[in-house]
Design a protein that fits this description.
The chain is an alpha/beta fold and 320 residues long. 31% of the residues lie in helices and 24% in strands. Strand 13 and strand 14 form a beta hairpin.
């Protein structure tokens, strides 16, 4: 009998109120609008889509930074979506978040040694000597020398800041880590070393990753499964190889058609992605992708397609 998923999200929504100059609510911005997905222990689940599609909002809602507007978040078999702050702090030990900007996530007034000791002081009863030994071991695991303990965040490079951020969360030995654009702002050589580090840490600490990125090449290299997100919804989800080699949703095809290739861009006229996504305050009726879809028909405006099983993956399209 297969084990239940480590993380399961069911019909999750996060809506933000839109207010006028007088503070009156005039509508809702539906950043995440009925998302269901799961992550199994030990795997890396990719989450891709254009900027503004709701990827980071989904990750922050799972983490508890945002309160869900609706739906369920089950982690390690427990509903965590509506927990009070004290109970949520206990969950935080096993569920951690790596921010897109590593420098902004580190207190500029603290040295690295203080940044790494803080989680252990809050969540454990270790003595100072035990904490120091733990911090030294974690620092070695992320590939940083002991000399970096006396540095401030601004004295580190972007790649080093990201390693410190990883060391900070790994001191708690989490079960699941949400990585929000973890390679953004890094040059290619540093990206390669950081991705190699992610794989090494996953094996060493038995981690499960939710990998949020717009870089399809990174997703293909790092993930076992991928969920494609558009305007607050999952439109395709399945095995990475199957989705990349035989995409079934028109939006997924458009994203993959625009991936640069040696000798030119592999863009087909049929699936070239044009225009901008609709305003999430005014979502189109029926299929959300219909205003940009080359396959659009009348039914697309009437009925919103549900996620359904197609060729071994879930696809939300009437014509998949």
């Amino acid at each position: 009998m297969s084990q239940p998923p480590l993380l399961e999200v069911v019909d999750l929504a996060r809506h933000f109120p839109v207010r006028n100059a007088f503070g009156r609510r005039t509508g809702w911005l539906r950043a995440v609008d009925g998302v269901s997905l799961s992550a199994r222990a030990g795997e890396t689940l990719g989450l891709v889509g254009e900027s503004g599609c709701g990827k980071s909002t989904l990750g922050k809602t799972v983490m508890g930074i945002y309160t869900p507007s609706a739906g369920e978040i089950r982690f390690m078999g427990r509903e965590i979506g509506g927990l009070p702050r004290a109970a949520r702090r206990k969950v935080a030990k096993d569920l951690q978040y790596v921010y897109q900007d590593p420098g902004a996530a580190l207190d500029p007034r603290w040295k690295v040694v203080d940044l790494l000791h803080e989680p252990l002081r809050i969540h454990t009863t270790l003595s100072r000597e035990e904490r120091a030994a733990d911090v030294q071991a974690i620092l070695q695991a992320v590939g940083l020398p002991d000399a970096h303990l006396d540095l401030y965040p601004h004295e580190l490079s972007g790649g080093q800041q990201r390693r410190v951020g990883l060391a900070r969360i790994l001191t708690l030995r989490p079960r699941l880590v949400i990585l929000d654009e973890p390679t953004s702002g890094l040059d290619v050589s540093v990206q390669a070393s950081v991705l190699k580090l992610f794989r090494s840490l996953q094996e060493t600490f038995a981690l499960t990753y939710v990998f949020i990125s717009h870089d399809l090449a990174v997703i293909r290299a790092m993930c076992q499964r991928v969920a494609v997100m558009y305007l607050g919804k999952i439109v395709e989800c399945g095995d990475v190889r199957a989705v990349f080699e035989d995409p079934r949703h028109p939006y997924t095809r458009s994203l993959l058609a625009a991936v640069p290739r040696i000798g030119g861009r592999r863009v087909t006229l049929e699936f070239a992605l044009a225009g901008e996504p609709p305003n999430p305050r005014d979502i189109p009726s029926g299929c959300r992708f219909r205003t940009r879809c080359p396959l659009v028909q009348d039914v697309c405006a009437r009925d919103e397609p549900p996620l359904r099983e197609v060729a071994g993956r879930a696809v939300a399209c009437h014509f998949a």
